[in-house]
Write a structure and sequence with these properties.
binds adenine
Amino acid sequence: MIGIIGAMPVEIAGLLEQMEHKTARRMAGMDFYTGEISGVPCAVSCCWPGKVNAAACAQAMITVFGPALVINSGVAGGIGESVQQGDLVLAERLVEHDMDTTATGEPKGFVTGPELVYFPADARALAALREAAAPIYPGGVHVGTVATGDQFIGSNQKMEALRAEFGAIACEMEGAAVAHVCYLNGVPCAVLRTISDNGDDNAAFDFEAFAGEAAAKSTRLLAQLLPRLHAEFPG
Ligand code: ADE
């Protein structure tokens, strides 16, 4: 089965509409829906924003359903002139940008235990997403570092800092937490995000206006690709 996590109801709505033989189970204050999407067995949940919510959701999903792949799908703020609203960002690696033990000599973003700054996304899932995305996002598919933190980025200064510190091309609030939990459990993970805003001074306004449309684009790509992902990640 494939696990899919969105942070807000709008980020999973398109998937739940298509889910057949749906059953629901509540854990850790979150609803987990299991059933088939495009004929593929899936577990889908809305974790709500932030790293702790995302981590709790990912761990419950992995422990209870044992997915062969966990996907975090939704929207993000684009970083840099070339990453435009409506484009797709696929994570190659993810960083918890507000993890900071620099006072003890570690690099910014370093997570003690795994001893990593950047958590990897699965290369095979990334390649499949990249290929399938090209016709849906003509000229607008970007692959790179996604920065995750417990804050909505809504200023040019903060957005530029994420680019300077981590080379990030998108900012959001859950992806690295999902990738971190997947890494700890040895489960492959993928993160896809359609750009709703640019993390700049207009971000809150743009997010309000475009998040629904952007989230629907991510779920359209995902629903279409699920049979191929299931073939590559059976079990
Ligand atoms: N998700 C969508 N836009 C975002 C932003 N600007 N900051 C954090 N998360 C986001």
